[in-house]
Amino acid sequence: MAQKVVIIGGVALGPKAACRCLRLAPDTELTLVDENTFISYGGCGLPYYVSGEIQALDALRSTNYQVVRDPDFFARMKGFKVRNQTRALSIDRVKKCVRVRDLVTQAEEDLPYDKLVLACGAKPRMPNVDGHDLSHVYTLTKLEDAQNIRKACENGSVTEAVIVGGGFIGLESAVALADMWGVKVTVLEMDEHLMRSVLPESMGLMAENDLVQHNVRVCKNEKLLKIEGNDGKVQRVVTNKQTIDAQLVIMAAGFIPNGELAKQAGLETIANGAIKVDASMRTSDPDIYAGGDCCSIQNIITGKYGYLPLGSLSNRQGRIIGSNLAGINDTFPGYVGTWAIKLFDLSIASTGLTIDRARLEGFDAISVCVEQLDRAHFYPEKDMMCLEIVVEKGTRRVLGMQGASLNGHGLKARIDAVSACLQYAKPTVNDISNLEVGYAPPFASAMDVVNVAGNVADNVLSGRFTPITGQDFVKLWKERADNHIFFIDARPAQAGKAMEAKNADWHAIPLEEMEARLSELPRDREIAIICNTGLRSFESLLILQRKGITNIVNSLGGMQALKQMGLDRDL
Ligand SMILES: Cc1cc2nc3c(=O)[nH]c(=O)nc-3n(C[C@H](O)[C@H](O)[C@H](O)COP(=O)(O)OP(=O)(O)OC[C@H]3O[C@@H](n4cnc5c(N)ncnc54)[C@H](O)[C@@H]3O)c2cc1C
After folding, report:
1. Ligand 1 atom closest to Cα of 261?
2. Model pTM greater than 0.85?
3. pLDDT digits 0-9 by tens, 496-524
């Protein structure tokens, strides 16, 4: 008898698992249910439809040979039945069936299964404030949301918008509205910096600077209190600090995994409700698989179960589940947490742990940040690239890397290289120093920026110099009246002299002159050195150390990092 498979959820993971299973075991009797009308669409493309970069909504649910993936497509081309507008109500693990309700007719029935797949995804977290149910308050998670938001922009009824949440979806939404539609956008973030859970402060500031440069207002440490409207429609947003006029609100305050069905059925879940699965993507019931945004898998770096709702993971896990449904024993290795985002000009990418996350997980870790050209210095086209490497002190094990650059593709290449190391080994800083990445002047430097990140981490761990972050350098500068620090600018004379002319506490001593001007340096004060990227300041520091001056801190990433963070304005 043919094996019966039921899949609940039909966006990313569900259809992937179904198609893979039927490719390997075509006689499977497979039914996929989803409560929505539209299935199998690229949710990650929604911001680009809102912005207008993607013209037609159907592009997000078409194959790359331009056939729309609707229930008929899956029945005819892939050999399985899709029941959209059908909600799964409960799972009976003893009788092995799923109770479903047709949302059009309200008829209920039981669907029997031999194997069940939970691909239920996650729902957006809705702050429970007055006015959250007003018209023109959206989440950007479904095709219909994107359609409504774009319509409102197209018909000119939106000139001001508030985005609640400064994470991935909030920032992509802000860019989409401001870039293409000229909407005056405010991003509300209740944390201290943007993307706090996934980025270090430096890169949160870089993201903010990119938004601010493009007229998006960023309000940090600020909480949504209520949304007010007229005739049922949004008019303004009230926070703990101000009232902001808005005709559109996008709630982007994170996700809650849809783990209720699993929990009711007695399957194991983690604290946030995500369904716990093993490496085969099996739940605590061997006949039930789960994957994608509703599930929790093991973090390869920490060894603990974690939660990261990403389409990249969902699609790959779908294939593994499909193989396992067909009887091939395949496994998913877990995740390290690798992602990328494009803002206006700036791209940001990350793999592994941030410094904050590493410390929360109990690692005795440091992070160092480097700024370097992404291509050979003599090649005409090039951009700066900032990489922050996170390292465990004693073992010198690399735990993560985050980066920001105008060159998004180049940045992603570096982060992906480190991601591969993190997934399959426990790389040390020396491994990153020697990581073999391709070189030709139009793509990289012979000593690539990713290698330099390893080198600088090695220097810091070996005690060759004491780094400070750009943020801390600026803080020292602002507090200079109290702490008697002697500030040196080691850039070429012209750049440093301009700063020196503005403030006598700023000492322009270019690297080339450092040795000759040693007598100008006080011996009883700490020295803080900065240059353009951190290279000249490091060379200067070596000269000073050779001359017995050791009380020095070196600003990592130099003025370039400050510029990217928008902190150069504070000097
Ligand atoms: C705006 C946006 C941008 C994104 N950008 C990126 C990106 O750039 N990169 C990246 O990696 N990821 C991105 N993501 C995340 C990615 O879209 C998700 O990780 C992915 O869609 C998850 O797929 P899934 O199949 O697990 O769940 P979902 O896509 O959430 O699908 C689950 C489906 O199951 C249905 N369902 C749930 N419960 C039931 C039930 N009881 N009965 C019937 N049906 C049910 C839901 O209604 C839904 O249709 C983005 C997400 C959004 C919203």
Report:
1. 41
2. yes
3. 999 999 999 999 999 999 999 999 999 88
